[in-house]
């Protein structure tokens, strides 16, 4: 019986890591995979989602609705940033890295100046349950379920909808997508908004579990980058399996030696993967 | 201009600091197949990319059925009815044949399901491979898919860039036959960029020869184009 409880604790550990990696990374992966843009302001879209969610909860909005508002607010912010900045730098990946890094700094500092160094947090809802001697927060299951739902949603959008087919065509051969009548600018703009919206969703979902500070985005960025580098450009074929593999490494290392070694395990995994699969898991799976 | 589908006037374009087209003029009549030929590097593909809108026009005008289109982006030209079959085919490799055709049909507002059936009459092989990824098809099959992808948008003008390149001679002959049928059945006008003299002579009424970004010779015979005459000219 004892080992059963331990096994369940391990599974929960894995589910936590998987959910965090998927939710932190999928917005970054979409923007990188579809548009070739490394969005260093990804963490600030996460922060935006978290802040808006918490503000909405303080205003009396129920949490699920508040998270949705946070995600939509981030998506709108993404649309504005794409329109004002990103679209002028398509095809200039290095410049767009500097640009998004700059946006990240400006947003972090502006938040610090206008809203102060932290925001009153809202506490984790839904109580807890016990399995054997261990007790778990129900909200951890919500997070895991949300990660699965996001993956399923992205799979449906990119395979079964007109927008998804148009977006994949634009990603694979942009000039022929345009010559086939697709307004690729609009597709990029929507794609960036979806990426930012998913970042906001991640921020909103994790807002009840963390302290809200203007630099909170950075705590998501390492994990997000590691997952995108290991996964490659494709969200379904890359981000999902990468998150699963990395979650096993992280949960295993954390269980064995603690948090710090979980992080070290992730970083070592990236170095190994870059060495043997330079285009990540999805680059390997879709090779021709 | 009633008897011109597409009129190109003094067209100049190129890359940032490298002009390629130095003033090209021609017009395409309804239901005509006009071939443009010339050696490598004379600007044929640049011409095609400029016509569809992938390279901006620097000077000159393009009129499609009387409407000036030189300032429109590629997707708007496609929606007006200009189809493009690029050199190297450029199918969407990690999408299925069916998805490739779906993308092609996005240029039309209300796609007619019958269109696809009609296109499969020209390219029966595509109907058999609907769920395969385009990237695994043979060169000839990809070429057929690239043509079909342009046709589902019901174009009035088709720009074809070296359709015979890198495919087997008998497949190239099939494609030439299909071009003639398309013109007959749909009244399609085609601008064909090609170096394969046999293909040119089996489909085209008129042949223009390009050199250094200009049209330097025009073959507009009364009767059939003679391959040997054209070959003789190109060899010089």
Summary tags:
heterodimer; A: 288 residues; ABC transporter involved in vitamin B12 uptake, BtuC; 2 strands; 76% helix; 3% strand; B: 236 residues; alpha/beta; Rossmann fold; 9 helices; globular
CATH class of chain A: Mainly Alpha
CATH topology of chain A: the name is ABC transporter involved in vitamin B12 uptake, BtuC
| Strand order of the biggest β-sheet of chain A | 1-2
Overall tally of structural domains of chain A: 1
The count of helical stretches of chain B stands at 9
Instruction: Look at the structure and give the mean pLDDT of chain A.
Output: 88
Report helical residue fraction of chain B: 25-40%
Kindly report the average pLDDT value of chain B.
89
Radius of gyration of chain A: 19 Å
How would you describe the overall organization of this protein?
Chain B: Belongs to the ABC transporter superfamily. Chain B: It holds the Pfam family ABC_tran. Chain B: Residues 6-236 form the ABC transporter domain. The complex is a heterodimer of chains A (288) and B (236). Chain A has one domain: ABC transporter involved in vitamin B12 uptake, BtuC (Orthogonal Bundle). Helices cover 76% and strands 3% of the residues of chain A. Chain A contains 12 helices and 2 strands. The longest helix of chain A is centred in the N-terminal third of the chain and has 34 residues, at 2-35. Chain A starts with a helix and ends with a helix. By secondary structure, chain B is of the alpha/beta class. Chain B has one domain (6-235): Rossmann fold, CATH 3.40.50. Chain B has helices at 44-52, 74-80, 97-105, 113-122, 124-128, 139-151, 169-186, 197-203, 227-235; strands at 6-15, 18-28, 33-37, 57-64, 67-68, 82-85, 157-161, 189-193, 206-211, 214-219. Chain B starts with 5 loop residues before the first strand and ends with a helix. The model of chain B has no long low-confidence stretch (mean pLDDT 89).
